Amino acid sequence: MEESKILQYFEGKTILITGATGFLAKIFLEKVLRVQPKIKKLFLLIRAVDKRSAELRLHDEVLNTGLFGILKAKYGADLSPFLLSKVIPVCGDVSYENLGIFDSKLRDEISQEVDIIVNSAATTKFDERYDVAMGINALGAMHVQKFARNCSTIEMFVHVSTAYVHGSSVGIVPEKPFRMGETLDGAEISYLDINTEKKIVEERLRGLEAQNATELKIKSVMRNLGIERAKLHGWPNTYVFTKAMGEMLLEKLKENVKLIIVRPTIITSTYKEPFSGWTESIRTLDSIFVGYGKGKIKFFVGDPDSILDMIPGDMVVNSMLVAMAMHTNQPSHRLIYHIGSSRRNPLKYADMKWLMYRYLTKNPLLDTGGKPIKVEEAKILETMASFHRYIAIHYLPFIQMLKLANMILCNHFEHVHVNARRRVNHSIRLAELYKPYLFFQGMYVSTFLNLISFNVS
């Protein structure tokens, strides 16, 4: 599809974006403002206590990031009036009915004007509290769709999911929808009743409240409950479990409204737009790179031949924009697209380890004193059993020595012992959480990526 036609589609459009302070939403917002200045309005749903707080979050967490540097250079002093005429922060929360938009006048304005809704609101923590993940990833998707049904001019609903809703699939993973109540292979329960899951959460929370449980206790119980319920139904963690629920809750919209579900794989920093390498905070694989670069990671866990399916954030956004423009006049009302690299440009786990070593050897990170940190070529522990054995040999004896010294010296090493034990337990928990992806044996069909060019600029 020609670039001019893609850009033309968005001319005069009004878009509602949920999860507006998230990584992908920022890239989406910047892209639209940069390439289509004739966009009519962009309503940005932001969790905040009031309008002023939403405006502050928009300024501090979105517009004031380095991502918008090129836009600032392009418009200069005219940027503020340009943004004021296009971008409208909306105080709300997808966890609530009507998206938590209590300003009825603003809510009516959105529902009467919006052409496209992009639902990118999500919590991506693998072991998020079950009540929180349920509220945002599952019920949040349902609330956004209910809101969409009341929008008089809406023509398209785009829901950002994840390719890993398929769980630990083996082989070629197709772009197929979930049936309501569907569970994955290996599930101990054959039917997923989302209403039952809601009741389990509510009952557990009431029980904890009756016990006057601390917030720390509630958080721990809810995190463990999410993992437990996910595994019962065949999913490896709370994140992908609740994202799969969210897809199930997306029922058919109005006859003329398209539903596009995009399922990206592991989203990384930008490839080219607005410039190469933009990211924020330490994301999934970034933490491994930084830990290795600082000399803190001496080994990796996983299958050397497993494929790490990664996709830059700007490629995901470009795919979304093209999909929206392409399917405006298509007869199909529900479209699902994987956005990943495993079929087109597969990267093996062992190759990633070698690439990191080569890069950090030539471009080492610096320590606090400004000296280069020398990295060693790390080994790969190819099974979880070898990982636990490595921990038992190299770390547990030291912790036992600290424990003994602490007892002999009247708790003199209590703080050191507790911290060392906590770090080891944290490493084990992370390895267990990431295990399905470190040993992943699937490859995602990406039919849509064969049809487009990523260079929509």
Automatic annotation (TrEMBL):
Keyword Lipid metabolism annotated: yes
BP terms from Gene Ontology: long-chain fatty-acyl-CoA metabolic process; suberin biosynthetic process
Domain of life: Eukaryota
Span of domain Thioester reductase (TE): 17-320
Reactions this protein catalyses: a long-chain fatty acyl-CoA + 2 NADPH + 2 H(+) = a long-chain primary fatty alcohol + 2 NADP(+) + CoA
EC number: 1.2.1.84
Function as written in the Swiss-Prot or TrEMBL entry: Catalyzes the reduction of fatty acyl-CoA to fatty alcohols.
Protein name per UniProt: Fatty acyl-CoA reductase
